[in-house]
């Protein structure tokens, strides 16, 4: 069960922010972020302990899985590229590796079920649910057993990081065809039109975009009587990486740690997690607004405001990785910035 955040310290937290040497609200979204982080880090405490507020062992997980719908030509790349990119992650050559090294994330790659399995490596976790999901326009993407196992696998992999001391967990992904899955999930959850939910993914042309939309419409019609719950939507339209992200996000929320959500695919997982356990959204920080068409609608559905707008659409957790300095800055000003009284500065009062 995901507990709601304890709000007993909220007034004290906000007062501390407001009394810093700045005009009220002058640090904008950083103030909102600071309040959320301090609230999460202070769970179970009856008084505010500044010395205990710290980001520890920030952990980035990139979940990889292949999608049967990719065989229908909905992407510019074949499914084999997923496994090749997993190998690139493991070898340290991708954008997410660069950002993790620069910023201090501890990176783990999770093979949730790729067509081309990767060789074992210290930073690779094998949690395979199969080689590839079924093409969801003709049958469920996965079985009920795979759904259950995927949720459990997701929990297991993040709990190992939390038990090692991580209190900020970020989510990225890799999977050819997974924008189709995420768009179908968005349409099923929101009731919005396929045209609004489905974008160009990795950069498909107009003809491929029309095919992608037609296949997702077919999938929604085929499964229309079996999309009543988030679990049903996940089983029928999801991916092996998406189901494990959902299980992992729910586990982080149950542990009352911070969830950093990346872009379109990760936000699809966040939507599902928040439908399964509504309080889980209180633990989520949305890193950036993706250029993928449906992401803005996802954020609206979640009533979420992303920290960054960088016109990115790479995935891999890259947007989530770039949010870490903002978390550090938010927590830093909360803990270290002087108050008007401390600095003997006349308090600024808005007119």
Give a description of the structure.
- The protein is built from 15 helices and 6 strands.
- By secondary structure, it is an alpha/beta fold.
- A 6-stranded parallel β-sheet has the order 3-2-1-4-5-6, with helices on both faces.
- Strand 5, helix 11 and strand 6 (284-286) form a beta-alpha-beta unit.
- Helix 6 runs antiparallel to helix 9 (230-237).
- It starts with 9 loop residues before the first helix and ends in an 8-residue tail after the last helix.
> Globular, elongated, flat, extended or rod-shaped: what is the shape?
globular
Uncertain runs are none
Q: How are the strands ordered across the major sheet?
A: 3-2-1-4-5-6
Order of helical and strand elements:
HHEHHEEHEHHHHHEHEHHHH
User: What is the average of the pLDDT values?
Assistant: 96
Number of helical stretches of at least 4 residues? 15
Q: Using DSSP, what is the number of strands? A: 6
Strand content: 5-15%
* Helicity, as a percent range: 40-55%
CATH class categorisation: Alpha Beta
Rg: 21 Å
The termini sit apart by: 46 Å
In CATH, the architecture is 3-Layer(aba) Sandwich
If you consult CATH, what is the topology? Rossmann fold
Name of the CATH superfamily: Nicotinate-nucleotide-dimethylbenzimidazole phosphoribosyltransferase (CobT), large domain
GO molecular function: nicotinate-nucleotide-dimethylbenzimidazole phosphoribosyltransferase activity
Organism: Pseudoalteromonas maricaloris
Pathway: Nucleoside biosynthesis; alpha-ribazole biosynthesis; alpha-ribazole from 5,6-dimethylbenzimidazole: step 1/2
Protein name: Nicotinate-nucleotide--dimethylbenzimidazole phosphoribosyltransferase
